[in-house]
Specification:
By secondary structure, chain A is an alpha+beta fold. Among the domains of chain A are: about 100 residues, Rossmann fold; about 60 residues, Dna Ligase, domain 1; about 325 residues, no CATH class. In chain A, helix 4 packs across helix 12. Chain B is an alpha+beta fold. In chain B, the strands form 3 sheets. In chain B, strands 1, 2, 3, 4, 5, 13 and 14 form a 7-stranded antiparallel β-sheet that branches. In chain B, strands 11-10-9-8-12 form a 5-stranded antiparallel β-sheet. Classes of the chains: A alpha+beta, B alpha+beta. At the A-B interface, helix 6 and strand 8 of A face strand 1, strand 3, helix 3 and strand 13 of B.
Chain lengths: ~850, ~325
Amino acid sequence: MAQPETELEQDLEFQTAEVKPYGPIEGYYDELVAPDGKIRPHWQRVWEKINEGGLDQLQNHQLLIDQIIRENGITYNLHNESGGGSAGRLWMMDILPLVIACEEMEMLRRGLQQRMKLINLILRDFYGDQELLKSGRFPAKLVMGSPSFLRPCYRMIPPDVDFVHFYAADLSRSPDGSWWAMSDRIDAASGLGYTMENRFISNRVFSGAFRELPILPIRPFLEGFRQSLASLGDFAGDNPLVVVFTPGPMNETYFEHSYLAKSMGFPLVEANDLTVRDGKLFLKTIEGLRQIHVLLRRVDSEWCDPLELRNDSLLGVPGLLQAVRNGNVAISNFPGCAIAESPAILAFLPSLCEHLLGEKLIIPSIATWWCGQDRERRFVLEKLQTLIIKPAFGYSKQFKPIYCPDLNPDELDSLRSMISERPEYFCAQEPMQQATAPIFNGFDFEARHFLLRLYMFGSRNGEPVMLPGGLGRVAAEVPSYEFSMQSGGQGKDVWVLSRNATRQEEVVQLVSNRAIKRQAQTLSSHLADNLFWLGRYVERAENLTRTLTVVLKSLLEESSLHDVQASTHLMKAILFNDEALKRLDFENLETADFYEILGEFVVDQIWRSENLASLSAIVSHIRRTRDAVKERISGNTINILQSVDDLTQFFYKKPAEPDFSIIYENLLHFLEVLAGFAGMAAENITRGPDWYFLDLGRRTERASGLIELLSTCLTRSQPFQASMLRQILDFADSTITYRQRYLNELSLYLVLDIVIKDNTNPRSLAYQIQRIQSHISRLPHRAPFESPHRIDEIADSLASYINLASLESFLIADSKGCRIELDRFLDTLIGCLIEFSEALSRQYFSVT
Amino acid sequence: MQSQSSLPMEQRDPDAAIAYTVHHRTTYKYQFPVSLSHHSAHLRPMGIGSQTCTDFHLKIDPSPEHIGSRRDFFGNTCHFFSIEKNHEELVVDSHAKVQVRFPELPDPSKSPTCRQVIEYLDSYGDASHQTVRIQQYLFPSESIPYSPSVKMFASPYFTEDANFLVACCRLALDIFDEFEFDPAATDVSTPLEEVLEMKKGVCQDFAHLMIACVRSCNLPARYVSGYILTHPPEGQQRLIGADATHAWVSVFIPYFGWVDIDPTNAQICGTDHITVATGRDFHDVSPIRGSVLGGGKQEIDIAVTMTPELERPATKIPLFL
């Protein structure tokens, strides 16, 4: 280790050598560089560490960041974006952290605690005695006229319970270095998941810095948050059920809903997973209804109960508020709290703070004037061209903040008359000269304005706990005050260095006082359904892709007419609905015709949009079900499926001139992805209901696919039977096994044995049914006992059909070349499988 | 101006209450079985001012697994119930006994001007609980959004120096004269601007329109849901179930209180009206609101029978004009 003196010298030297390219903007506070041009003390060691490897290394790191974001599928959704290929935009993270001095963070913590306490007192009053309104300390109009004041929430919770359990605030720094609150995030504050991901990424990129610098860890915050949520369900005894309540995959920040659920080990649920019975909230699970005690709510207040709030909401649970009133469910945060986000409230916080807490606001809010007051309105109208006008009651689609310095005189006039006409609806804020922080733009450093979002959760028996870090957001351009990701902003990790020089270790309890559990976490019906279908779609995609590659192979390689004819038949198996193909007159076609037909079918089968069974359609289903089960499956396993997104270009854009060798390569790559997922899933998923449903899906689909194939290709005798059998073995990945046993002798009898009866062949029908029987015997049998044995019965009869099948009889063809026995046998099996799938769905997926 | 002294003395006696029984039956028929339903209901007549609800019971078939009631933000009684067994039909019977006294009426000559009303509310009046609550009746609400065309229609009535109460009555009269009562023209989702354009609608539309007009001029008005007594033709029996739910408007007169005006019938509400609930608009006080699982299409049938203890002639209180 260097001596302190030399370290300082190095710092100075380093400053002159490396900081030159970064120039703060005149007139703004800069996080990194003090007015005297020196690096601020709390940044020094970090800046040194980050620049250790020079710009080249930063460039490499930035590439690594982008790769991690892609692999982990860290996305956010844009509003009004329809599904298909544009489901999610990738998160963007700047490599440079935002470093906050420890002492400053301590001050911010006290400030945040004060604001959270204040907001809880205000909400308690608004939804209770309304003394603040009656005494005129707060304008009644701002509550009574607000669309966010939800009357059904009036006296909904006991007066000693807080509305807000999880709180966030967006802060900004003014030129003199002081922090200001720009807004409070209360209803369903987002960003915590992204904050955790940012840290995960910077941990990987700057592992050296994290080893050597005392950067405060943020993981314990999440653990604390988990415990604190569970403690809200104390009324339920030792084992409250906590769930994360999301609007669903179309929501902007669905990624983090799933992330939070997964990392805290709580089920992620949507409205359809929930039901209110007897004034209590329940989760529909594969074992029946289970009472929920705590909701971490990510559905906006007014959408969460269609019975009492917005009745057009499909995102809510009818009866939820009644369950709250009955004291049967706690919500973080309770519905109704959105009113405290109204911009105009900021104008009254200082006086309310003095009145309610007898203190001055530690973190002041940005200067705000409500136009519903005469003096304030006159001031705003006079100074209009220098202000930002915001809706007093909160944002809407029609009303976004108006940045008046950008308006021309006509626009200013019309805004003035709008304000004069309905002044209560408007408030004004002073634009702040927000501080800047450095970003790395890929080549050098640049100063950008930023916002800092801090998070805090309440704890029942102590002070609220703040995350020792936060979410930094930088604007896309200079100057710009648009920090949203939609407008091209980026995220930043926030580092707080401990005063103690030692690195903070996460405390791991060596001995837990919890009983060991082997039982899986509650599995909702909805998730079980999605797991089952994910299994099916992955297998279906694999079947189709396999078939396509077999066919493409015959197109790309030199093949006999028989091979091509057989391929055409194979296509027919997957295209059993295709009338055009059925009408083909096989006898009179030349090889060249087959080539053309096959080429067309391959393209159709991948891209045709009206084809619901096309590969691109199946890929969409895989992505949808994958996203729905994300929080249940380990990162590495799901990440493999995430790479399906890399093939998006291929799957969603049909080429004008298809190049079969490129298609072939892409399909092979896709097969690898699918095989990788199958392997990881088999190795990594705990053997519990999750695994059983996923694998049941796969087995059911594999059996159906094979049956379809056999019934299309083998139920009639064909002149090109040898080619056909070869391709079937290929399709069933059983060629090698077959050759090892029987060398090159191709016999229908032996092929049938290996694909139907051989239960050592993991691709045979017998094997699939064996797995199915074993899985269902381990599934929970829920009450009321509808007919769990019906599922067993079907599986058992499938097994005995296969066991008792006489392969010899399958070989016999009648005068027209039809193998009636084989046909009948396959028909019976497919019927049973369909019935099996339906019975499973009735039993486990459609709990009401 | 027609004076209230034209009314027979005995009808103005505040102590002489008229007793009614009201039977309000709502029947839902579903296309498919409903496996779970949650409902909230505003059916119990209010006990306020000139009205007392002496008896009330709710009969629900099939009988709910869970039922309860609470006082809502507006002071109305709100029942909620849930049914957890399969059903294809739901019948909600509400039986009420209500006593209605002749209301205390304001002296229109002493009623404040529109400007005085606005100033009163802006200055917080006496800053009482009531004044705080009245603020909510100045703003748009779910079924009554802000509309420039409504404001244009309303402005001539509510000039600064106009007598607020009289202006409301003029507006009610014009709605009565110029708008056609036509149940086929609108449904619950018809926007106000359309009602204004067609000049057709039902009591709910007229109430919403009148409220929208008053509010567009920053003056306070609220929605009243209730029943009105119909008078059978001379010598005939009252028909069972022929009455209907009704809706009208209540406007706030500083230093006096709320005055109920019925634009559909161009009258001040008296002993023929029974108030069930008040709110900002229909959405706040709809008699029954539900959320069902399954069911498919549904048919709703509503039958109201309002019977006075003693048949008597209509007691129409004229508008203050």
